[in-house]
Design a protein that fits this description.
By secondary structure, the chain is an alpha+beta fold. It is built from 17 helices and 20 strands. The strands form seven sheets. Strands 7-11-12-8-13 form a five-stranded mixed beta sheet, with helices on one face. Strands 1-3-2 form a three-stranded antiparallel beta sheet. The protein has a three-stranded antiparallel beta sheet with strand order 4-10-9.
């Protein structure tokens, strides 16, 4: 059995190759179908309102002004055909048929085309590394062996009964919320692995990270509930739960007499899988002191923790977890669960050390203590380890630090300054100037990098020291622009009015000669003039265009891996709504396509 062979692409996996005409048209058709579906729904409700007709059973669609909370789930129902939209739809069909293409050639796109051809011809899998940009070509048999080894390490097979129970409970929740016709049952998504090539003795051990993408859609409801709960707790307690780098920098700036302080940096070991039912229940109990949480909210959050792993369509459950409780990486609400538990941890730490100079970002914590000598810092270290053990968590901790790296910033208490930080051998890589991205993305990249490096640099002097590494990465991606320091300016809280806009997102490709966006907007002007009954809802202010991207190299590799896996990627899912007698749901499709 062959060992993994490292494959080097020497560019960002986000680069987009120029597609074939058929590939482009296929995605364009999907985008046209999508916008027409939304326009039909909007026109349907608008015309009903104008005609003062009674609302029928399809009033629950997201476009109806009186719709109930649907947590982002879209209606699965088919919109009715609208006679007034027929001429517009016919012209859209002709626009697709008449799309013209041109030949685009450059050295970088030629390289991408050869790489895509090589990927598609290969019968091996391309597996990404866990924390590096490396890719590894693996024989399907070796991949199957590694996958099975890591599944059987922590999981055991089970029957379809737990799947049916999860779906039945999800259906009950969805029916109470009135969205059972929108939600789908748990999809049996195939588990997969990434390679931990940063580990010692990687070539001999081939350590992997097992990724479980299977999840119940109730996680989307749980995410909305937890977002509300977490925001309320943050406001009520005012603890330092950081959600981005800028909030950590602001905390650092507010430390007075920095030279008198030392850092204590800690990391929660395997935070996601270490969260137990008991710990989450304690966090929810604490949360009830600050905001209202109904029994149904708790039921939804706990139900979303029920997790199964699927391999070749067979369900697996975690060993020793008969209640299926798990906080999986990649679940819809996993980050929000970690934030809630993090808030509980911060409240626990605040009772011991105060809340002003200690904070947490997911599983990474940072504290600043005043006048802590060696023995005092060691006592704090032991006490913090003890506190986390009481919560069922383990931490790694470093004390007596004057300089520390946190997220992508280095903080220095001796100088009171902060500057950009990158892990060793972590060289920045950007999309190439000749990548098949929309021009506005290519144009704005150097400026966005300038803003980011400026934001994490204490001043212009530090910015100029950090900039050359990023400028070199831009140069390798064929950009000629340099980086310039942008002084920090306080953001204004402008009042943004929420507008009901329908967006058409055609795919961008540089080999398309037809101006798709311009043609679409001309059709809006043509078919919905001021004299039109539908002009009020379909005009240049309510229907707009924003280009989407074609599949990048990473997406192409994922598609290749699905095709050449040693077993099929079975994915079963269906509506949670029980079908009515004699009713067969049909998939909506634009006539003529």
């Amino acid at each position: 059995m062959e060992q993994p062979n490292q494959v080097s692409f020497n560019y960002s996996m986000k680069n987009i190759p120029i597609p074939t005409a058929n590939t482009y048209k296929k995605i364009l058709i999907e985008k046209v179908e999508n916008v027409i579906k939304r326009m039909r729904w909007k026109a349907s409700f608008f015309l009903k309102t104008c005609n003062n007709n009674e609302e029928d059973d399809e009033e629950d669609d997201e476009h109806h002004p009186a719709h109930t909370e649907n947590f982002g789930f879209k209606s699965k129902k088919c919109p009715p055909q609208i006679e007034e939209l027929r001429p517009f739809e016919d012209d859209l069909l002709r626009m697709i048929e008449n799309v013209k293409f041109k030949k685009v050639t450059n050295q970088f796109q030629d390289k991408l085309r050869k790489d895509v051809s090589r990927i598609k011809k290969s019968t091996k899998l391309l597996i990404p590394a866990d924390k590096t940009r490396n890719m590894y070509e693996i024989d399907t048999q070796l991949h199957e062996k590694l996958l099975r080894q890591h599944i059987t390490k922590n999981y055991q097979t089970t029957s379809m009964a737990p799947v049916n129970r999860i779906n039945a409970e999800a259906r009950t929740i969805a029916e109470k919320l009135g969205i059972d016709n929108r939600m789908e049952s748990m999809a049996t998504k195939q588990a997969f692995i990434t390679l931990k090539d940063h580990k010692d003795n990687f070539e001999n051990n081939l350590p992997c990270r097992l990724i479980n993408p299977a999840k119940s859609e109730t996680g989307l409801i749980s995410k909305a509930i937890l977002d509300r709960i977490n925001n309320a707790i943050r406001i009520a307690t005012n603890v330092n739960q950081w959600r981005n780098t800028s909030s950590v920098i602001e905390w650092f700036k507010n430390i007075q007499d920095k030279e008198k302080y030392t850092f204590i940096s800690f990391d929660i070991v395997e935070f996601y899988p270490s969260i137990t039912r008991s710990l989450l229940e304690k966090a929810l109990t604490m949360a009830k002191d600050h905001t209202h949480i109904s029994n149904q909210d708790v039921q939804i959050i706990m139900h979303s923790r029920k997790s199964l792993l699927f391999d070749n369509g067979t369900p697996w459950m975690k060993k020793g977890h008969n209640d299926l409780f798990d906080v999986t990486m990649g679940s819809y609400d996993g980050a929000e669960v970690c934030e809630l538990v993090g808030l509980y941890i911060l409240n626990t730490l605040a009772r011991e050390y105060g809340k002003e100079y200690i904070g947490l970002y997911r599983d990474d914590g940072l504290a600043a203590f005043k006048n802590t000598n060696g023995s005092k810092a060691d006592r704090i270290r032991k006490h913090m380890i003890s506190l986390f053990k009481e919560l069922g968590l383990n931490i790694t901790i470093d004390c007596n630090l004057k300089i520390t790296n946190f997220l992508d910033v280095t903080f220095n208490l001796n100088t009171g300054k902060h500057y950009p930080y990158r892990k060793p051998n972590d060289h920045p890589v950007y999309i190439h100037r000749n990548s098949n991205h929309p021009p506005n993305i290519i144009r704005s990249l150097p400026a966005s990098i300038s803003r980011r490096i400026s934001a994490i640099s204490h001043d212009e002097v530090i910015f100029k020291k950090a900039a050359p590494a990023y400028e070199e990465a831009l140069k390798l991606s064929n950009y000629t622009e340099g980086l310039s320091y942008i002084a920090h300016q306080p953001t204004k809280n402008n009042r943004n009015r929420k507008r009901n806009i329908i967006w058409f997102n055609p795919p961008f490709s540089s080999n398309v000669a037809t101006n798709i966006g311009g043609t679409f907007l001309k059709l809006i002007n043509k078919h919905f003039p001021k004299t039109s009954k539908l002009h009020k809802i379909f005009n240049r202010n309510t229907v707009k265009v924003s280009y989407s991207c074609m599949p990048n190299i990473a997406s192409i590799i994922k598609g290749h891996n699905k095709r050449y896996s040693s077993h099929p990627h079975i994915e079963r899912k269906g509506s949670l709504q029980l079908p009515k007698k004699g009713h067969m749901p049909t998939k909506w499709k634009l006539p003529g396509i």
